[in-house]
Amino acid sequence: MKIAIATDHGGFPLKEDLVARLKKLGHEVVDFGAHELSPGDDYPDFVLPMARCVADGTCERGIAICGSGVGASICANRVGGVRACLIHDHFSARQGVEDDHMNILCMGGRTVGVEVAWDLVRTFLEACFSGEERHLRRLAKVDAAPRNVTVL
Ligand code: RB5
Question: Whose CA is nearest to atom 7 of ligand 1?
């Protein structure tokens, strides 16, 4: 699978570890950086280009990391066609893809250990969207919601 990955300084060591593990499994990894540990860098500079690459289909799935994963997930979801979620547990890593068509997995480099992160990544990559009618219906409602609606 062709996988995009991005992080700021908060997830740099985790990203390096995951890139090596993904390549060892035979995946093609497009690494959007950070390419060095630089405490002053900003996650949007890495996460936005990575998210665009997933949205336009150049990469099949994406992984976005920052210190908590919060900034990375907020940022990635600004890109149309992206369904990015901050994930901490095995169940959601799978169900997020099967039911909600999640295409970018977000994690916190300061909140998750490398072995748990690796389990989440493998689970995310192995899962497929079910395509079931009720999930398509829900996703269509999400897609139909204009971004500028503040009061329902
Ligand atoms: C950077 O210090 C930190 O704020 C960032 O990596 C991330 O956790 C933001 O959500």
Answer: 67
Helix (H) or strand (E) holding 107: strand 104-108
| CATH of the structural domain 2-144, one choice from 3.40.1400.10, 3.30.450.20, 3.40.50.300, 3.40.47.10 | 3.40.1400.10
Strand-pairing partners, residue 31, are 5
Instruction: Mark whether 59 is an active-site residue.
Output: no
CA distance 19 to 5: 8
Å from CA of 114 to ligand 1 middle: 18
The residue ranges of every structural domain in the chain are: 2-144
| Atom 5 in ligand 1: residue holding the nearest Cα | 67
Ligand 1 contacts CB of residue 10 (under 6 A): yes
Euclidean distance between CA atoms 124 and 92, whole angstroms: 9
Q: Is the CB of 139 under 6 A from ligand 1?
A: no
50-99 pLDDT, tens per residue?
Answer: 999 999 999 999 999 999 999 999 999 999 999 999 999 999 999 999 99
